[in-house]
Amino acid sequence: MTAATNQRPTLQHILQTYHQRSSNAQVQQVLGQLKKCGTAQLGYHLYKCANDQCKRYKYQYHSCRNRHCPACGALQKEQWLDERRNELLPIPYYHVVFTLPHQLNAIIMGNRKILNNLLFATASQTLLSFAANPLHLGATPGILAVLHTWGQQLSFHPHLHCIVSGGGISTQKKWLFTKGEKHNFLFPIHAMAIVYRTKYLQALKQLVQAGKVCLPPGTNIAALVKICYKKPWVVYAKKPFGGPQQVMEYLGRYTHKVAITNNRIKKMDEENQTVTFDYKDYNSGGTHKQMQLDVQEFIRRFEQHILPKHFTKIRSYGYLANRNRKTRIADIIQAMNIPPHPPKVKVTWQARLAERFGIAHNRCPHCKQETLTLVAVATTAGYVQDG
User: Fold this and answer.
1) Which residue range is the domain that position 186 belongs to?
2) What 8-state DSSP symbol labels residue 39?
3) Angle at Cα 71 formed by Cα 69 and Cα 72, nearest 5°?
4) Contact 319, 141 (CB under 8 A)
5) Are residues 89 and 187 in the same domain?
6) N or C: which end of the chain has fewer CB within 10 A?
7) Are residues 195 and 52 in the same domain?
8) How confident is the model over 259-308, as pLDDT tens digits?
9) Are 337 and 90 in contact (CB under 8 A)?
10) Residue 139's domain is classified under what CATH number?
């Protein structure tokens, strides 16, 4: 056994080598899927080359399609981005981030679903309330919110990234622009932070009083809330996006992101059982550094960011809220007097694979001809002949 692997390890390799069992059933199920991704354990499609000079076979192993897998989801992400692209307008968009103080981490870890839901609710309510104020906008903007739970070192750091439109639709179906769009801000950040903090802490106390939130042993909720009220909560806004195309670039990088990508994992030392990975140190101006962790600590940190089953990590509000979304966007297009968006098109995975990655799904890896034909499918449930 060598001290370090010759090839750069992947998250799957680390889990296959060192993960045994997780105490949480949901976490255990997710990590089990990640370990099987792209292996015969999940089944495969069997192709045969129709070229008479080749006639070789190709096994295409199935992916796990789990949203926590760094190797999956690229094609689904592209379809989602196409749908969002059709909703963008020729206006400024703003990036606002809502964070939670680390003093609440222990409570959130034990009540992830309800308290992450609370994060979505209070952040969106804060944005919508400021937008409704005639001093700021006097209308309803479009909001897309994405939950991230990690820091660069895989620490537990729940925060919400929000993309907010620089205009909104009024009750009279008129399109209005924010007064701050020329000044690199959307709404007053310090005022938003105070409102957001108040909304979250008041709701947290009510949830605890109703018995819907379990507290860690020895937690004095009144004292904890008092401490959190004294702390300034971080709400910050980055510079507005340069235009719809820059919004799409951001969405492509961050909406379907997982806690750590394979390209950040640099080394797995099997002798010392450590993992080394890249991270950005924002306290040093975003300098790239490396961190070495015991492999079990690395896995433990990754486990912290596995979401509850069926939890929705990307949500929309305002005129982008799901109910009657098409009608509202049609009203906005009419109010702005701009051409209607093109109709939604469902692109096949074969076309998406060719367009996005330049890969022909039927290209034989041996003779390089596009002559592969499907002859059989094997699944975890058994073998199914397909021709």
Assistant:
1) 74-259+305-336
2) S
3) 70
4) yes
5) yes
6) N
7) no
8) 999 999 999 999 999 999 999 988 888 899 999 999 999 999 999 999 99
9) no
10) 3.40.1310
Element (H, E) at 78: helix 74-85
Residues 248, 85: contact at Cβ < 8 Å? yes
Distances (CA, A) of 96 to 123, 145, 188: 10, 9, 11
Residue 263's identity, in one-letter code, is: N
Residue 322's CB is within 10 A of a number of other CB atoms, namely: 8
Structure-token match 């919110």, residue found:
145
170 and 215 assigned to the same domain = yes
pTM of this structure = 0.89
For the chain, what is the domain count? 2
Distance of CA 13 to the CA centre of its chain: 23
Statement to judge: residues 224 and 369 lie in one domain: no
Contacts 24+ apart (CB under 8 A), 173-178: 173/331, 173/334, 173/335, 174/139, 174/335, 175/139, 175/332, 175/335, 175/336, 176/137, 176/138, 176/139, 177/91, 177/137, 178/131, 178/136, 178/137, 178/141
List, for residues 332-359, the tens digit of each pLDDT value.
Answer: 888 888 888 877 778 887 888 887 778 8
* 318 and 369 in a common domain: no
Same domain for 187 and 123: yes
Q: First-to-last CA distance in the chain?
A: 45
> In three state form, how does the secondary structure of 223-281 look?
HHHHHHHHCCCCEEEECCCCCHHHHHHHHHHHCCCCCCCHHHEEEEECCCCEEEEEEEE
Are 312 and 377 contained in the same domain? no
In the block, residue with structure tokens 């639709």: 169
